[in-house]
Amino acid sequence: MKIIHSLFCFAAFLAPPLAYSQAPAETVKPQPAFEQKLREVRYDLRLEDGRFVGGAAPVLESAIADAQYVLIGEDHITREIPQFTTAVCDVMGPQGLSAMAVEVGPQAAEFVSALFGSPDRLARTGALLHQYPNSVAFMDVRQENDLAAHCANAAHTPRFHFWGLDQEFVGSAGWLLDQILATHPGPAATAAITRLKSEEQQDTARAKQTGDPSKLFLMAAPDSELAEAAAVLQREGGVAANAIFRELIESHEIYLKNMQGSPESNNQRANLLKVNFRLDMEKAASAEGQHKILVKFGDWHLYKGINPLHQRDLGNYIAEMANGQGSSSLHICVLGSKGTHRLFAGYDQPTRLEKFVMDEDPDYLWLRPAVDNQVLNGWTLYDLRKLRFTKLGPLDASMERMIYGYDLLIIVPELTPADLIQ
Fold this sequence. Notes:
Low-confidence stretches: 1-25
Distance between the termini: 24 Å
Number of helices: 17
Largest sheet: 9 strands, mixed
Number of strands: 11
Strand content: 5-15%
């Protein structure tokens, strides 16, 4: 969903809304001609026994078959979108699915992927989350964790890659510091990281008292202390230790800028996603060549062209890269017309549930024509590719951005909240 949710649903704790949203432009009332065009490119979509059925099934399956990169822009923490993505993986598997990139940090993805195939996968994930609360984003959701394991199995290759491209989550600092200490750096580096670990524990205790994530180490750590520890670790630490500490520092910078209300937080985060994707692609290509890649992020991240934050994010990077390679990318946006969101409610606190109607959200008023013209008794797929370079009449700028930024738009009548791993 929009970045205020995509940045792990806690931006309200950290920054003024303008850091992750924007005042909506005056909505242009769509003309009946546009709604008629929408109806001409809509198809009914259903899932039966994990397979796509309905008029949309051949449209969707053909589009997936033609693309090397399949991108799913979503609303977060739902039951329905993992079900949809599970079916996508089953379609992609026989076609050479080799990697999946998701909206988590590299360390979180490495931890999750190491458990693929393990009968105690969820229990071990729960143990990590108990020891380090809010250390893993989205993979702490049962349906998302199950989805990742399913896609790994559907790929039918022992070299399936599961990539985390994002910064690490707000409560991850203690976990990251413990991983660095486990590499046994030199004595000065061990002393420096141990001091930071002591500060992290004090910050965690303060955050637990109020649930305020801005008290956590990733936001509260002094830049000077991080820089000093980085210099010592550079001299006495190994490659793995330094890579983890760089992740910690960049996560700190992104969260701190967010907390300060700086839009540069979004830009740095988008650049991080692109750099990590490029590096992961290069490693995989050097090992076994390129195959089909699945990417699943919040919808604002995966637009071709300029996204609603007026920046070029991961989706545009992949689209341009695919063009340069002579391949193609398929961008699918999956949103609900209404439902219930599961939202972050504070550090180490129970989440809260909140009802929503999507086209009453100021950032999604433009979605109303797609909501109003849904098919009955199913999901609705709009083939946006057929709306490009045609006369549509007066059109809301955000709807036009969607038409050129995504290839397919899927509207689910109602989204229900997924379950957290306990």
